[in-house]
Amino acid sequence: MRLLIMGPPGAGKGTQAKAVADHFGVPAISTGDIFRANVGQGTPLGVEAKRYMDAGEYVPDEVTNKMVRDRIAEPDAEKGFLLDGYPRTLAQVTELDAMIDATGHRLDAVLCLTVDREAVVGRLLKRAQIEGRADDTEDVIRRRLEVYAEETEPLIEVYGERGLVVSVDGMGEVEEVQQRIFDALDDVPES
Questions:
Q1: Across the chain, what does the average pLDDT equal?
Q2: pTM for this structure?
């Protein structure tokens, strides 16, 4: 199964991605986790990514595309993957199409978690306190939501035109949302 999970920051994508990936026996690949790991290790990619992340902006496509291409080429992703945080721009959609086409497969579904905007701000502020995330101030969170609405939300329409979007209500207890996701995705044919 080759899946994308989309939704605004704080929609619960990271929380649900691992369970969904386990359900389908594929790796959950989070660009955010990879960026944070690079920032924490002080790698050149991390230093460059941190500048953008701290401002609530997206890391440039060329950096992100290379990272994703390398990751989905790893052996554990041969039978599929769940991408969290990619693509975020129309140019990245085109790049991902080419990456998947090169494997002889296709994208099976785009899982979209829908949430209340103000609830998301609250979730992210709480997460920032618990996890000590310096990049999650209220101003940065609101900017990230604006950037998502401007740059990423339009991709849902693109994937909708392809008949790939599976929308699921992301509000509620983790287990409830998870069951809604499984119910929605279990009927999706795999490539």
A1: 90
A2: 0.84
